[in-house]
Amino acid sequence: MRAPSSDLPIAFDNVTITARAVTILDRITLSIGAGAPTVLIGPNGSGKTTLLRVAMGLMAPASGSVTWSGREFAAPTRRAIMFQRPTMFRRSAAANIRYALRAANIPSSTHATRIAELLALVGLSDFANRPARRMSGGEQQRLALARALACDPTILFLDEPTASLDPAATKAMEDLVRAVSNRGIKVVMSTHDLGEARRLAGDIVLLNRGRVVETGGAEDFFTSTKTGDAKKFLAGELLI
Predict the structure, then answer these.
(1) pTM for this one?
(2) Range of 111's domain?
(3) I want to staple 165 with a disulfide (CB 3.0 to 4.6 A). Which of 53, 54, 159, 169 is the partner?
(4) Residue 192 falls within a domain, yes or no?
(5) Residue closest to 79 by CA, chosen among 66, 92, 96
(6) Number of domains observed in the structure of the chain
(7) What are the pLDDT digits (tens) for 38-70?
């Protein structure tokens, strides 16, 4: 079990993100701390992916501030992100991970052992020499997860990691999210699947139109929501 990440908590203070005069995140104030996975839910276009990018440090606020353990500038050396449609390099599964190890300046003497460990973790030990682009969608997602873990992150951001996967591949990915979290890595993920949110979340953040509608422990959220919009969302009604 690793110690809590020195980048936690990640604190958003009145954060606004705009693009071409469109507000994507609107005065977000939020704290993401250590513990079980934090799951972002909300309608399409609610700002989930943008919030993950800002938390990773890939986007700067137009106004407001983001801090990592109280630091406004913190190099993302122990943070990693896996996008919804990760790009597979034109090389083998093992070489995809080796690329990530080199990018993270991991000593080359450890690469073979680390690649074997990561492939075993995601259930792809027999695919080391398989061209990554010839793997199934579920296999590619697991390889992308292994690649994200190459830098030995303490915080892992996942953008809808099971989108478009079949039920078996979805279960495999959810099992991996649990395994990663059990290793002490803080997982922050978005999903459009409320069932998945129930199964994985320690706490929930519901977004709509770039604003936080409601946040809190997952059990309380799903059994006793506090806001009308949250109740509508759980009932499958359209939020406006």
Answers:
(1) 0.94
(2) 88-146
(3) 169
(4) no
(5) 66
(6) 1
(7) 999 999 999 999 999 999 999 999 999 999 999
